[in-house]
Amino acid sequence: MHYLSSSLKSRALETIANIAITADNFQVAWNTLKARFENKRRLLTNHLSTLLGLSALSLESASDLQTLYDKINIAVSSLRKLNRSPEDLWNDFLVHLLTQKLDAATRKAWNLQTSNVDSPPAFADLKKFVTSRIRALKECSSTSSHKPASKSANSPHVNVATASVNSPSACPLCKARHYLNLCPEFVAKNPQQRQEIVKRFKRCFNCMSSNHSVRDCKSKYACRFCNQRHHSMLHVDAETSSDSTTITPSASQASQSSTPKVEVLLLFAAAQQSRSSQVFLATAWIRVKVSSDRAATVRALLDQGSQATFISGHLAQSLYATRIRMSISISAVGGTHVGKVRHAASIIIAPRDSDNPSLCTTAYILDSLTAYTPRCDADSSCLAHLSDLAWADTNPSSSDPIHILIGADIYNDIIQGGVRKGEAGQPIAQETIFGWVISGPLVSDANSPAGRSSVNITVLHCTSLRPLAEEVQRFWEVEEISHTRKLTPQDEQCESHFCDTHSRQSDGRYIVRLPFKRSPPPEIGRSRLTAERLFNSLSRRFRSNSELEKDYDEFMREYETLGHMRRAPSADRMHDPCVYIPHHPVIRETSLTTRLRVVFNASSLTSNGTSSNDHLLAGPKLQTDLPAIILQWRQFKFVYTADIAKMYRQILIDPQDLDYQRILWKGDPSEGPVDYQLLTVTYGMNCAPYLALRTIQCLADDEGHRFPRAVTILRKQTYVDDVLFGGDDIALVRESRDQLVALLRCGKFELRKWASNSPILLADIDSSDHGLVITKQIAIDDQLKVLGIAWNPSRDVFQFKVSLGSLTLQSKRAILSAIARLYDPLGWVTPVTVSAKIIMQQLWGVQIEWDDRIPDSLLYKRSMIYAKLSHLNDLQISRWTGVTADASHAELHGFADASTLAYAAAVYLKVTSATGQVTISLLAGKSKIAPISPLTVPRLELSAALLLARLINVVRNSLSIKSIPVTCWTDSTIVLAWLRSHPSRWKVFVENRVHEIQSNLPDADWRYVPTQDNPADCASRGLYGDELLAHFLWWHGPSWLEKNKRGVARRTSV
């Protein structure tokens, strides 16, 4: 017995664990083990499951084939040892196969019925069991069924629902493994019929679970239409028909590209209505192909009301289409948010019997596009006037499903000139590249089956928005304190590529190569079809807007005249690889030089679902942080700003790469679109900023030894194509300007749009290229800001520009978008922006959808903030901080404070001149929202002190003042006590922060300041725009600071 026990492990050992180890118990233990593990029926089931569950080999491999052979051999040998004849094995196989297909409840009943028999059951017994089970279920169903509620045949009803994605059990309706609310049979029913199904299967009306009733349901969700405790798919509007169709978006997985997400607002609704007239929608049978050349012939619906094209998830899966990550918000008509579609695919569509003409587009993927199924035969007399035409859909009344919905993005390229009309009330035919599509009313008898057929009325509207995620990301990048960035391996690859491949012409102009991730670059895909389609769309836009066409022609004519593009050589017209870049206009009303700018979209997808930008290295971020440039610029008494004219376009692209920069543009009136090559670095390529700035750095390296003053300006005082520099002496500032002009001309760059706070510095510059009245916009991009910064040179002050426009801020999406467009890089209006950030956090805590109206309490706070935001238009901040070469003393003072809502820091520069005049300037402010998980106030105060330490470190490194003393102020005595001691004395949270503060500011003098004298206090609690305007404490610090007094401060050395 002891030997037997020592030979067992795991479940076998547990089986006899309670049997005493004695010689008498050996046979008892042995019989127990045989009963448990020698069950012939269980062994048979396991071996059959092994055989049927073997996976097919995907690759030719000796080791994988050997493993497969061994598994089969073991299973077959084990079956032989069970002494089962071939007839027995066939019986066993059928029983096993059928039981695995049974639903969980039926399989349980079968196992209970045969549990008292160890031998494998006979197939005949299983057949008898299934037959009796069917009879019993039918009888139960007939006694518990109810007659469906009567339907109204008038008003349509809209209902939209989203799908759950948890692991489902067997569906009670169709027995497949999915949730009931995802069952195709269930979805096809109207709400009343769904209610009956839920009742029949005794499901919870709220979450459709089988484990409880609605009164015990713990789900926090309710109907999104009426907020009652029932599932949205069971909602019935009392004022409308019960007939409705549910659209459920898919979130299926497939191969995905790295294309950035795009935010789209999609309004999608469907309804069914019983009526006496059938309406045909324009359908056609077309051929759809993907980059792998897999193709399918499917039925399409042409919908000019949609701004995008959609394909079904079934079609995408059948074609093995490469899925591109997208972010698409689905909303019902009226703005009710439903869900998201997360994928799209690049497709090519063509007539079903020809490859020409063909159109390339990006299609969004939905699980179900539309329930449009006429389900009635067309009366031949109503279509007699169209009988001689070649129909794109030979049976427009067919119930064949729609797998592609063609939107207005390519609709105009499909439609041709012919139209055929009949009498009033009869369908019309429109000529397309697929043939003639039939649409319009078809009258039928209201009492006939055809007349009572279900007509699906579909409304679809899709509007592309600026990606909200991109706006929010940029907002938080501005709000975050900058830090040193390390080069990634891809950054190092890009840098090495530039150093190895750039060159210069004899006149000094630079030539660069495109930094592809792989060399030679891979096949990017076919792109001319997309470029030609978008060019045709642009041409149609020109026909309705002659002013736009004039400005566009002027821009492109200048582009060609300056030698920045040329006609592609005819011999290379069909040369591979050629990548065509679509282009579109961007109107900038505030621009002083070019109102219209043409933007080239190198992120446009090609036939294989990738774009040029997907294959290019973006390169490291080279530009100096704008806050650091502004801080340095504020030290100069006399300043200049200027732009490097057409900076990107002064750098040539190597001829080897020109075919990756093709566009289509106008030729002679008799010609179609003509191929052009862009000869310079092109805005819209993700590598363009790197190539431009790296070339400027290279110019400073190559020629800087002759222009030492200009080198510093190019390296530290240039932001993209804007230069901001100055000094205390007019003569030296002018000398710096002349050196900068000369250095840039060595690389064929020119400066323009000069501005200065001194008329003397502009006197020798052409008056057409400067002005004292010009307001210089300061921004990180061209996007319209709710709140932006500008510099007025005539007054030498910074001003804020508030552009609320017609914002309707009543949803989470709208408010978040508006907050993300508050541009305050140095935190000068932190007390206002912190209030907006607090609302942003509170919105996350409210369980509402993106486009739902926010609660009235938050709506009031939002209204107060934005109503008074316009007061900031009157705000003026002096640019110059009073720093001069003869200043007797300069000090940095930082203040930190925290509330339960947020914590903040503010940094001031105190300058005392040789004559004793004191100037105090707010340099920077920052705030952060308190975490949702509550922290104690002392810990929040410590977080504020850490924020201040980081902010002072950035400010001090940006200033050119050497050995400037730093004094830090807080109104928390606990924080001062923590900072007075070694970090190791405290717990981890405090230890880490104290250590970083002491490391960043080892020479700082930390002091106590009363709360009423702490300017960071208002930044941690928030102010409205009108309150901030005249808030002396925020703009100048405590009054005793100017008088060179310490007030009641207590000193604490750290």
From TrEMBL:
<dbReference type="Pfam" id="PF05380">
    <property type="entry name" value="Peptidase_A17"/>
</dbReference>
<dbReference type="InterPro" id="IPR008042">
    <property type="entry name" value="Retrotrans_Pao"/>
</dbReference>
<protein>
    <submittedName>
        <fullName>Uncharacterized protein LOC112468697</fullName>
    </submittedName>
</protein>
<dbReference type="Pfam" id="PF03564">
    <property type="entry name" value="DUF1759"/>
</dbReference>
<dbReference type="GO" id="GO:0071897">
    <property type="term" value="P:DNA biosynthetic process"/>
</dbReference>
<dbReference type="InterPro" id="IPR005312">
    <property type="entry name" value="DUF1759"/>
</dbReference>
<dbReference type="InterPro" id="IPR043502">
    <property type="entry name" value="DNA/RNA_pol_sf"/>
</dbReference>
